[in-house]
Amino acid sequence: MATSQDYRLGDYTFPRGWFMIATSDEINTHKPLAVRFFGRDFALYRGQATGKVVLLDAYCPHMKTHLAAPNDTSYVIIDGGGTNIEGDSIRCPYHAWRFGPDGQCDDIPYHEGPIPKTACVKSWTVKESLGAIWVWHDPEGGEPEWNHPSLPEWDDESWVQWKYDDLGMLEQHPQEVIDNICDYGHLSPIHGSTVQRYENEFKGHLAIQRQCGPHRTLVGDDGHSPVLHTITTYHGPGVLVSYLTGLYEAILFITHTPVEDGSIRVWHALLVKSPNGNAKVTIEDKIAAAQFQESSRLAFAQDFEVWTNKAPCLNGLFLPSDGPFMKARIWYKQFYNPRDRRAEFVDKVDGVYVPKGIDPYTQN
Ligand code: FES
Ligand SMILES: [Fe+2]
């Protein structure tokens, strides 16, 4: 497993940005959920009082009990009706200290007198959108630099909402996945795309790929298949949104989150505009959309299969007719270094790049 240091990414082991940590469905239960990302353990739950999502560091400051690990035997859980969530707070199963959504201990049943300020766990900035829970991860502990993921089409009744494909763990550093945003050369051998026009652009925290051409996996190869246009953008280091036009109008979503230094968890989903042109989606639309999401998942599985078995690319043998891999790798470094060094990386890469031998992207 190659690490962030092996890729010489910067000062931090894990990048700054918004990252998916669960689907909303996973916390639509009365129990807290134990999750692990960024090499640390968390307790994630939905407050019973307000429905608010809370993410706390997992280990109780008293004696380091996991606040969300499965427990069926503590009377805190048994008397709580099978849960240790109380209102928007959570109670430790061991000695029953209770923590509010801000992470501060607000009740110790056997203790009289003030509760020490140090009786707290870190509470993380979380948001819920697009059927998922997002955390702002930031080694400097700063405020979010851009908005959490959202799409106006999500709440539009003429679009079929997705159900996430949880692709599980990938034992590769996220750098290998990020490389894909500028990987012009793999589109034909892996996805069967006959790319007609292609370009990348880097702009601040965005890395964009625009391309068009027939695509065997997604739109078929009978010689009459429509040209697929994709405009794909990394919004920071963990969230990829791709607008697809060709067969259906759709938005592809791939999100990955570091688990350990050198492994990630990955989700895939597809938002599809009513394939039958309905103002409000029907059952038939949902069936067609689910089938299209499955072909999209299979297209992504073509990348995934290679990533599963490859060695880390610490020094690639890149050609001028490859996409701008080194630019993308510099772009990615902005998230592994302090904010005040951001311009150093962004200034080196902002702009449009076209691999040697192909035409730049245009819509027509
Ligand atoms: S370990 Fe959590 S209350 Fe004692
Ligand atoms: Fe790919």
From TrEMBL:
Keyword Lyase tagged: no
Keyword set, alphabetical order: 2Fe-2S, Iron, Iron-sulfur, Metal-binding, Monooxygenase, Oxidoreductase
Cofactor(s) for this UniProt protein: Fe cation
Entry superkingdom: Bacteria
Molecular function, one GO term: metal ion binding
Xref: InterPro entries: Cholesterol_7-desaturase, KshA-like_C, Rieske_2Fe-2S, Rieske_2Fe-2S_sf
UniProt KW Nucleotide-binding keyword: no
Classification via CDD domains: Rieske_RO_Alpha_N
Domain annotation Rieske: ranges: 18-135
GO aspect biological process, one term: cholesterol metabolic process
Pfam families the record matches: KshA_C (PF19298), Rieske (PF00355)
PROSITE patterns: RIESKE
Protein name, as recorded: 3-ketosteroid 9alpha-monooxygenase subunit A
Organismal lineage: Bacteria, Pseudomonadati, Pseudomonadota, Gammaproteobacteria, Oceanospirillales
